[in-house]
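Friendly challenge for the regulars: who can give me the structure tokens for this chain first? No prize, just bragging rights.
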Amino acid sequence: MSVKRTATIVVVGGALAAWLANAATSNREIAPARIARTAPIEMRGAELADEIARLRERLRPSASPQQPARNLFSFRSGAPRSAPVAPAPVPGLFFPAPPAAATSESGLKLSGLAEDAGPDGAAVRTAIISSPTQLYLVKEGEMVTPRYRVAKISADAVELADLAGGTVLRLVLK
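First reply, four minutes later:
Bragging rights claimed.
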């Protein structure tokens, strides 16, 4: 039984190998007509080269560029120009400037408030105050400017004590 089984496997395997070998090879032959077709291709290449040469001749500049009449990179050495005259305003078309935003006379503005837990667990507030030139992060008792000291920081406002005038400036968070 094993000889019969071995013979069957060999025959089927041989047939399968022959079938795969036949499928892998090509039965097509190169026709000599393809070789004869190279002559028109060479003619097309020559025509293309002539066309390229004609286009290059057409694109070649016939005249050299002229020098500009003025040099953009040199300053004018003559008399200075007068400033342009602004047109006169037309009467009746005057619009008043919008009113300035209301700010404190000191120029200070409360930008924000921060709150951290202190060493004993109580909340310690920090005020963020902006001036036209600087941003201050201050706590109660600290100086904002040489003129103002932080007196009290609440949940939405800061009171600054004016050391020069003895008044209190209240900045409210908007």
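The mean pLDDT is 80. The first helix runs from residue 2 to 24. Your move, everyone else.
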